[in-house]
Design a protein that fits this description.
The complex is a heterodimer.
Chain A (H helix, E strand, L loop, with lengths): L25 H8 L8 E4 L5 E3 L5 E5 L11 E2 L13 E8 L2 E6 L6 E3 L2 E2 L6 E3 L4 E4 L2 E7 L1
Chain B lengths: L4 E7 L3 E3 L5 E11 L10 E8 L7 H16 L5 E7 L3 E9 L3 H9 L9 H14 L6 E8 L7 H14 L2 E7 L5 H10 L4 E4 L5 H13 L3 E10 L4 E7 L5 E2 L1 H4 E2 L2 E9 L5 E9 L5 E14 L4 E15 L10 H24 L3 H17 L3 H17 L4 H12 L7 H4 L1
Parallel strand pairs in B: 2-17, 4-5, 4-7, 7-8, 8-9
Antiparallel strand pairs in B: 1-3, 3-15, 5-6, 10-14, 10-16, 11-12, 11-15, 13-14, 16-17
Classes of the chains: A mainly beta, B alpha/beta.
C-alpha cells in the first residue's frame, strides 16, 4: 500500500504511513465521498461509517443536547462523543438556500473548521459534498444523501 | 466474577481481504474496573519526595506546602504517609506513619527552608525505603516525586530505583515544575515504575496535580494487573502501547516472539487501561480466524481475591471479496492516530538530539499534520514553533520540548485547564 503523500510503501492493512503519518485507509473513503450532488440532501459521515442526515430545514442547529439548560439542537452530536470532543451546546448552524449550503459558527468554544481551516464566528461559509467539517475535535465528511 | 473487570477487544477491522502476504492489524484491549469492584476502600501507602533546592524558593514552595496539606487532609486514618525532602542532602521529615494527627504531619513541612542543589536519587532512595516499611499488596503503594531542577549526574541511579519500584509494585508519579529539569529522566522514572508524570508550568497548578494523584489513588480497586497475549502460529506482534495514564511504547519489555507479557500495575478505577497491539497476520484462506488470545490477571484486594483471570479472543474474518472488507473501527483508528502523533514526535526529537535537522524537521511537519487532523491545534502550533526554532538556532526550546513530550503522551487524557497553563 503506497502512501499518496510521501510514496513510501507500507504493509497492507496499515492505517497510517510509517514514514510521514498520513492516513492510508480513509483516503479512499474520502475520495468516495467527494461526489458532487449539490441539489440533494446532505449527510454528515463519521470516520467509522455511521451517518447523520441533515434535516430538511433552512437552518439546522448543530450542537449537544442539554436538557438542564433546555438546549435541544436539530443535530445532537452527543452520541458521537460530542462532550469529550469539545462540541458546544449550540455550536454551529447549517443554512440551506435552494441547493446551496453554508455553515456558520455560533461563537463556539472550540471552533468550527471546514477542510481544516477555522471558520470565523458568525460568518457563513459555503460547504459542499466532499468537504471535511469539524466541530471542536469532532470531524465528519460531508456527503450527498 | 463477571462484574470484576470489563474487557473489550476491538480489532481495527472485523474482516480482511484474502491476500498473498502479511497484513497489519491493530487490536485495542480495553480494560475497565467492573461494577462489582469497590474503589476507595484500598488504603494508601504514599511517600512524598520533595525538592527543597534553592530554586524552589517563594511561590513554588508556598504552593507545594498547600498541596501537601491537601494530600494529608484527604488521606484516611488507615493510610500511610511519609515526607522526604532533598537538595544535595536528604532528610526524612515524616517517617512512614498512619495519617492521623494531620496537623503534626503538616507542621513537619511548614518549617522547611530552601537550600542547596538537586540530587534526586538520594531523595528517591529514601522515599522508597519509607514505602517499603508499609508495602503490601492490599495497599496502593506510591511515591510522588516533585522537582524543579536538573539532577547532578545520578540519572542511572534514579532509573535503577524506578526499576526496583516497578518490580515492587510502587508506581512513581514524577512532577516537574518550570523548565529547568530533565523531562526525559522524569518520564522514564514514571514509565519504568508504571507511574504517571506531569509537567507544571505555573506553581499554582501543583495543587491540581496532587489532587489528580489523590483521586487516582483513591479510585484504585484492581491491582497487579498483567496482560499475557498468545498469538496464533505465524502472527507476529510488533508493537505494544499502553495509553493510561500516558501513551508509552512498552514493546521492548513486552514482546517476546509470538508472546506478549505486559505488567500494567494498578487500574485507575475512573480511566482503566487501554492497550494497543500492532501485529502482522499471515496470509490465510477465507473464513474465521483467531489472531490470538489475551489473558488479564489481577488482584481484587477489597474482596480478598488474588490471581483472578479473564480471557478474551482477538478474532477477524478473512473474506475473498476485497471490496466487501470491513471499514476501519473509528475508536481504534482514533487511538492509532494519537499513537502515530506520539511516534512521529518521538522520532523528531531523537533526530533533533542527534543534530539531524532536516530529518527532525520532516518528522515534526508530519507530526503537526496528524495533530491538526486530531483537532489538537495548540500542540500543532507548538510543533511549528519548534520547527522555526530548529531552523533559526539549530536546537529546540526547553519549554517547547516539554510541551511536545508531555502533550503527545497525554493525547489520550483530558487535562485540566490549570495544568495546561
Amino acid at each position: 500500500m503506497k502512501c499518496s503523500e510521501c510514496q513510501m510503501e507500507n504493509i497492507e492493512g496499515a492505517l497510517f504511513c510509517e514514514e510521514c503519518g498520513a492516513k492510508l485507509e480513509t483516503m479512499n473513503e474520502l475520495q468516495g465521498a467527494a461526489m458532487e450532488s449539490p441539489a440533494g440532501r446532505l449527510l454528515l459521515a463519521s470516520p467509522d461509517g455511521s451517518t447523520l442526515e441533515i434535516p430538511a430545514k433552512d437552518d439546522v442547529v448543530v450542537g449537544r443536547e442539554d436538557p438542564i439548560s433546555e438546549v435541544f439542537p436539530d443535530l445532537d452530536l452527543t452520541g458521537f462523543g460530542g462532550m469529550e470532543k469539545g462540541v458546544s451546546r449550540k455550536h454551529a448552524v447549517i443554512h440551506r438556500s435552494g441547493a446551496d449550503y453554508t455553515v456558520e459558527d455560533m461563537t463556539s468554544t472550540n471552533g468550527t473548521y471546514v477542510n481544516r481551516k477555522k471558520v470565523q464566528p458568525n460568518t457563513p461559509q459555503a460547504i459542499k459534498p466532499g468537504d471535511e467539517l469539524r466541530f471542536g475535535k469532532l470531524a465528519f465528511s460531508l456527503k450527498a444523501a | 466474577m463477571k462484574n470484576e473487570l470489563n474487557i473489550r477487544c476491538i480489532m481495527s477491522k472485523d474482516s480482511l481481504p484474502v491476500t498473498d502476504g502479511e497484513q497489519a492489524v491493530y487490536a485495542l484491549v480495553d480494560i475497565k474496573a467492573g461494577t462489582g469492584t469497590t474503589p476507595a476502600t484500598m488504603p494508601a501507602n504514599i511517600a512524598l519526595v520533595l525538592d527543597r533546592s534553592g530554586s524552589m524558593d517563594g511561590e513554588k514552595m508556598n504552593n507545594l506546602k498547600e498541596a501537601v496539606g491537601y494530600v494529608v487532609d484527604h488521606l484516611g486514618d488507615n493510610d500511610l504517609v511519609s515526607i522526604t525532602i532533598f537538595d544535595d542532602q536528604v532528610e526524612t521529615l515524616v517517617p512512614s506513619r498512619p495519617a492521623k494527627n494531620r496537623d503534626e504531619i503538616k507542621a513537619g513541612l511548614a518549617s522547611v527552608i530552601v537550600r542547596g542543589g538537586t540530587q534526586i536519587s538520594d531523595g528517591l532512595s529514601a522515599g522508597l525505603a519509607e514505602v517499603k516499611k508499609g508495602i503490601s499488596r492490599d495497599r496502593v503503594n506510591r511515591i510522588v516525586l516533585l522537582t524543579d531542577g536538573q539532577t547532578w549526574d545520578d540519572e542511572d541511579a534514579c532509573l535503577k530505583l524506578a526499576d526496583e519500584a516497578g518490580r515492587l509494585g510502587v508506581a512513581i508519579t514524577s512532577i516537574g515544575i518550570g523548565e529547568e529539569w530533565n523531562e526525559k529522566l522524569l518520564l522514564q522514572i514514571a514509565e519504568r515504575s508504571r507511574g504517571n508524570s506531569h509537567w507544571i508550568q505555573n506553581p499554582i497548578a501543583i495543587l491540581d496535580a496532587f489532587r489528580q494523584e489523590m483521586e487516582g489513588m483513591q479510585s484504585v480497586a484492581v491491582t497487579n494487573v498483567t496482560m499475557t497475549g498468545r498469538m496464533s502460529p505465524g502472527v507476529r506482534p510488533v508493537k505494544v502501547f499502553t495509553t493510561v495514564p500516558m501513551i508509552a511504547d512498552v514493546s521492548a519489555r513486552t514482546v517476546s516472539g509470538s508472546m506478549l507479557q505486559a505488567d500494567l500495575g494498578s487500574l485507575d478505577g475512573r480511566k482503566g487501561q487501554a492497550v494497543l497491539i500492532e501485529a502482522r497476520v499471515p496470509a490465510h484462506k477465507a473464513g474465521a480466524y483467531r489472531v490470538g488470545q489475551v489473558e488479564i490477571r489481577y488482584d481484587l484486594p477489597s474482596g480478598g481475591l488474588s490471581g483472578r483471570s479473564v480471557k478474551a479472543d482477538l478474532n477477524i474474518t478473512f473474506i475473498a471479496d476485497a471490496a466487501g472488507a470491513a471499514k476501519v473501527n473509528a475508536e481504534v483508528m482514533n487511538l492509532v492516530e494519537k499513537v502515530t502523533a506520539f511516534k512521529l514526535q518521538t522520532q523528531a526529537l531523537t533526530e533533533a538530539d542527534a543534530g539531524n535537522i532536516v530529518a527532525a524537521t520532516r518528522k515534526f511537519q508530519a507530526a503537526a499534520t496528524v495533530l491538526l487532523d486530531l483537532g489538537e491545534d495548540e500542540l500543532a502550533d507548538a510543533v511549528k514553533s519548534e520547527i522555526a526554532a530548529l531552523k533559526r538556532t539549530g536546537s529546540l526550546t526547553a519549554a517547547g520540548t516539554k510541551k511536545l513530550e508531555y502533550g503527545t503522551r497525554k493525547l489520550t487524557q483530558v487535562m485540566t485547564e490549570a495544568m495546561k497553563r
